[in-house]
Design goal:
CATH topology of the largest domain: OB fold (Dihydrolipoamide Acetyltransferase, E2P)
Structural class: alpha+beta
Oligomer: single chain
Helix content: 10-25%
Largest sheet: 5 strands, mixed
Shape: elongated
Number of helices: 4
Radius of gyration: 19 Å
Order of helices and strands: EHEEEEHEEEHEEH
Number of domains: 2
Low-confidence stretches: none
Strand order of the largest sheet: 3-6-7-5-4
Distance between the termini: 18 Å
CATH class of the largest domain: Mainly Beta
CATH superfamily of the largest domain: CheA-289, Domain 4
Length: 169
């Protein structure tokens, strides 16, 4: 649940914010001064390696009539029918340039395989021990809804995608 608390710098407002965070709610607070939040408010996401099954080159997809625009179709993966979601469309980004073929990242969601179309697959980065903060304020609202937070790297940020939210189409 998303909760907004006004006047959360002390007293009842601060206590309400802490209780809501402990219960796992998404909390936005408005106050006159900055108050440190408990550590669990900046909880790191589970390692993606637990969810990612494999990365593949693009495959032929069968379209799904009347599906949401972000549904890129279905693929057959070793005899299993797998739903494919176009992350560019899902995140409100421009389509991939003509002639470029996206890659696929197959993830497990509620025991089912789902393929995510991505532009490219880069390096594997070990984020253990790196600072993790909430989504940057500069992200558009639609994108903030599917980003768990950001890891601070030496010269950039690495955004952590909420796989459950981004696949809920």
């Amino acid at each position: 649940m998303k909760i907004t608390i006004i006047g959360a710098s002390a007293g009842v407002g601060l206590q309400a914010a802490r209780m809501a965070l402990q219960k796992g709610h998404e909390v936005m607070t408005l106050s006159r001064r900055i108050v440190p939040l408990p550590d669990h408010a900046k909880k790191k996401p589970p390692p993606a390696s637990r969810r990612v099954q494999e990365a593949l080159r693009g495959q032929a997809r069968t379209t799904v009539p009347l599906a949401a625009p972000s549904i890129a179709g279905l693929i057959s993966l070793r005899g299993e029918v797998v739903l494919t979601i176009d992350l560019r469309t899902r995140l409100g980004l421009e389509p991939l340039a003509a002639g470029l073929e996206p890659m696929m990242v197959v993830v497990k969601v509620d025991g089912e395989s789902i393929s995510l179309l991505v532009d490219d697959i880069g390096d594997v980065i070990d984020v253990q021990g790196r600072p993790f903060d909430g989504p940057p304020d500069t992200l558009p609202t639609g994108l903030r809804e599917v980003i768990l937070g950001a890891y601070q790297l030496e010269s950039s940020l690495l955004l952590a995608l909420d796989i459950d939210r981004v696949t809920a189409v």
